Amino acid sequence: MLTHALDRLLHRPRTAIGAILMLHRVDTPDAEGIWYNQHLKMSPRTIEEMAAYAREHKCRFVSLDEMTDAIRRKRNVRRLIAVTLDDGYRDNYTNGLSLFRRLNIPYTVYVCTKMVEGEMLYWWDILEHLVLTNGRITLNDGRTFDCAAKEAKEQAFLDIREVILRLPQNDLLSHLRELFSNYSVDYRSGNDRLALTWEQIRELSKEPLATIGNHTCSHLAFSGCSDAEIREDIMRAADEMQEHAGVATRHFAYPFGEASAVSRHDMDLVKTLGFTTSATTNQDYVRYGTDPLELPRLFVTERNWKQVLDGIIAHC
Asked: Which pLDDT tens digit goes with each residue over 186-221?
């Protein structure tokens, strides 16, 4: 404890000052669904409990701008928490707007603009449906995945997800049609109900607590893209957000930000595009020496939020 206090007093470069929480959806998980997909949802009630617990333990909710200002200025702060939501799901507005306003919590919504345009390939939802409705999945190349029991379904979802992330991303729909050629699949599923609308984004952009960020246009895994494709997808999202919502996005989050989907080369490329911050899915605390263009985040779910907060309380 004494060493930690001295680190804070002396502003040593790696002193942890807080964390960025990564959420996706503000909705109640389906207990019958695949957890690795359903864990993208946090219910409003759970978020309320999380906020109360955090404040009870002297945590302070701040915006991304406040967090990065603390990194740069090395101010003597601790237990800062910034809330982010990835993708741009409609429930961020329908459930989240009033919730975060009532809780007085700043938040950043990273929007994938293809979702807003109704052209998104929600392959993770499609995969969940396939796994839940089949006792066995056989891919076009003959690979077979047991889906008989719930535990097997959970594992099959993860295994097939990895296969999809390794596919060439520039024509993912064609590759998925081939991969799942043994099955009848609605590849437009979700486009009429899951995403924010431009009007909702415009309203969010006027909300003092909300910040709109860039999450690419197509949500492609960078591991399957060329430099030109990555740059074009990011800048297209920026242009669309400016054109349709009048928002200039200064904050970026990688789609599928884990190490297997984003390389050091990809991160260096994004650093040339002029963003104030870039958020990864690397699990760590924010420290005085953290690069704002390589921000770590902690993934919070219905099941782990207290464990995550206890870590922040203990280390920051």
From this structure: 999 999 999 999 999 999 999 999 999 999 999 988
CATH class of domain segment(s) 2-120+194-315: alpha beta
The Cα 77–Cα 99 span in angstroms is 26
What are 163-183's pLDDT values in tens digits? 998 888 778 999 999 999 999
From residue 33, give the alpha-carbon distance in Å to each of 150, 154, 271, 299: 9, 9, 37, 19
Q: Where are the domains of the chain?
A: 2-120+194-315, 123-179
Owner of token pair 């296969």: 163
Terminal Cα-to-Cα distance of the chain (whole angstroms): 11
- For 97, half-sphere exposure in the C-beta direction (CA atoms, 13 angstrom radius) is 17
Q: Indicate the pTM of the whole model.
A: 0.89
Q: How many other CB atoms are there within 10 angstroms of residue 229's CB atom? A: 15
